[in-house]
Design a protein that fits this description.
The structure is a single chain. By secondary structure, the chain is of the alpha/beta class. The chain is built from 15 helices and 32 strands. Strands 16, 17, 18, 25, 26, 27, 28, 29 and 30 form a 9-stranded mixed β-sheet that branches. The chain is globular and about 80 Å long.
């Protein structure tokens, strides 16, 4: 599934009217000229019986067609913050074909200065134009937004339910027919929870009939502003939010590296009691190197796993920004040969917000450098870590037992998530291990990190050079690698002079045969997050967010196809297909 690029076409705006932006391609406004926020409150929040509908709910999911400037999100967020249940979590899952850039959104939202605080927080996480879902999380308010940036039917096909309420806010039906097709209405019905409510500004006949044909009960209501009427619709059945995920806890996370830290961060944001277990303690495995680089996986294709992993990189970059141990700085990627240079040039055209090709090197402008131990600690905050080596997991009725190597009892929990890095090889046959070594030398590091197969960056007061890759579990750092690092630097970065070795570090990475992560449920009471290879810090936070949202009955975080491409079952399915 290739396209002309990995980005959505941007919104084309007309600012000639004082009332706000218009979409030039559609000849329509983004919100009412009278008062866009009041329109949100009347047409969507009131129509969906908010805040009453979420009273007493621990999880509530709202779907939206047409994210636009984000004004509906702000109106919803304000109401949730003021009147949402104290222990609840709200997901807004929206669709947008033509994303606005951050400056345009800021200009539009400036019309509501009393929302300036929420606007600033939304704009601080404003996503790039990458196709597919982009996740924004605001844990202080127990609120998250997933924006599916794609054609509406393609986005809805990749979403999962159940959805408790819908805001249908595309451009007018006579100017944007694709947003109001019967297939769209049918899919909204398929995704709706019993009793789900729908609000929209239009009363066009084919919209009323389309919603009714999909199975909704539809009624006209008094409109907002100059519109005399609007529509409300209800999906049949009584609201029932039981059985939407695991019980509140406790959940055991086995592994205290970046995968475990990301899971702890996501679970605790939702108020889930969490038990963290690692025999060696936090960052004792592959997440304990002196330094690392946060860079996107570069693949010239628009495929489900590519979308998922690029979204994961963007999410990690937003999550780490401002945290202890992270340094936002560009990374220079040197091509190995002319063929790779040509590939980098194409990728820079596909991803102009992330990459710049200079003609000789690729600048990863949204990248960063991090100190792994400090960053893991920042994500885990004060989460205790229990020292134990888990050898066996027994799932019973409503309880999962964790046992050590001698069969001794370690814990009983509602659910277990394996995030043990190399330790996952004891539980999953498709995990492959490789040892890696880095070294920190005396010397002055390059101004910004540089990678070319090896890489070099600042680490404390020295220069870190990495990394070796050897199959198996030989982790003892040795002097033989030093000469290789020196030779690589002399060839590719001759201006950086390396002095004596300050520190050698070795660790074991866990990967899969296809070099894609594992994330998802793996049996009764058991889930996994692993196989991250050398990109754990780029991929773990969003994959943890997706897994925790699924386990707790929250909204969609990744596309269904992306989750399937990363699921633990994919290898068994491939083996079964080959056997036929």
């Amino acid at each position: 599934m290739t396209t002309d690029g990995l980005y959505c076409a941007p919104a084309v705006l007309d600012w000639s009217q004082a009332s706000g932006p218009r979409a030039s391609d559609y000849g329509d406004v983004y919100f009412s000229a009278e008062d866009g926020l009041a329109e949100t409150q009347a047409v969507f929040l009131k129509a969906c019986q908010l805040p009453e509908a979420w009273a007493g709910r621990q999880r509530f999911v709202i779907g939206e067609l047409g994210f636009g400037t984000g004004l509906n999100a702000l109106g919803l967020w304000q109401l949730w913050r003021d009147e949402g249940p104290a222990d609840g979590w709200l997901d807004l899952t929206s669709v947008e074909k033509h994303p606005l850039d951050r400056d345009a959104a800021a200009r539009a939202l400036a019309a509501w200065p009393h929302l300036a605080d929420l606007s600033a927080r939304l704009l601080a996480q404003w996503p790039s134009r990458l196709k597919g879902p982009q996740r924004l999380v605001f844990p202080e308010d127990r609120f998250a937004i997933t924006i599916f940036q794609d054609e509406v039917e393609a986005a809805l096909a990749q979403m999962r339910g159940p959805v408790d309420a819908w805001f249908l806010d595309g451009f007018a039906p006579d100017r944007n027919a694709a947003m109001w097709s019967q297939d769209v209405f049918n899919r909204i019905g398929e995704l709706s929870a019993p009793g789900a409510r729908v609000g929209t500004f239009t009363v066009a006949g084919f919209v009323r009939r389309g919603l009714a044909e999909a199975g909704f009960d539809v009624a006209k209501r008094p409109g907002f502003g100059r519109k005399r009427e609007r529509l409300e619709a209800v999906w049949p059945g009584q609201p029932d939010w039981s059985g939407r995920g695991i019980e509140v806890g406790p959940v055991a996370v086995v592994g205290a590296g970046i995968a475990g830290a990301s899971l702890v961060h996501a679970l605790r944001a939702r108020g889930v009691e969490t038990l963290l277990i690692d025999a060696g303690g936090p960052s004792s495995g592959a997440s304990g190197a002196p330094a690392g680089l946060l860079t996107p996986r570069l693949e010239k294709a628009d495929r489900p796993h590519v979308r998922a992993l690029l979204a994961a990189f963007d999410f990690a970059r937003r999550l780490y920004d401002g945290r202890d141990g992270f340094h936002a700085e560009p990374v220079t990627r040197l091509p190995r040969d002319d063929r790779e240079a040509d590939r980098f040039a194409v990728l820079a055209d596909w991803m102009p917000d992330h990459l710049v090709w200079t003609g000789t090197q690729l600048e990863l402008i949204s990248a960063g450098r991090f100190e792994p131990r400090r960053l893991v600690s920042a994500l885990m905050e004060d989460q205790p870590c229990r020292s134990a080596r888990i050898a066996k997991i027994e799932a019973g009725t409503g309880v999962v037992r964790l046992l050590d190597g001698g069969g001794g009892h370690v814990a009983e929990v509602a659910h277990v998530i394996l995030a043990a890095g190399a330790g996952m090889a004891d539980f999953h046959g498709d995990i492959e291990l490789s040892a890696g070594q880095v070294a920190v030398f005396d010397g002055e590091a390059p101004e910004n990190p540089v990678s070319w197969g090896h890489y070099a960056c600042r680490a404390g007061n020295g220069v870190l050079v990495g990394a070796t890759h050897v199959r198996g579990q030989h982790v003892l750092p040795d002097e033989d690698a030093d000469a290789g690092f020196r030779a690589a630097m002399a060839e590719r970065l001759p201006t950086v002079k390396l002095g004596p070795v300050q520190e050698r570090w070795g660790g074991v990475r866990a990967a899969t045969p296809d070099r894609l992560p594992l994330v998802g449920r793996a049996g009764a009471g058991l889930s996994v997050l692993g196989g991250l290879g050398s990109r754990g810090f780029a991929h773990a936070p969003l994959l943890a967010e997706a897994l925790v949202s699924d386990l707790t009955g929250g909204g969609a975080v990744l596309e269904r196809a992306g989750l399937a491409a990363l699921s633990p079952q994919r290898f068994a399915e491939r083996r079964a297909r080959k056997g036929r």
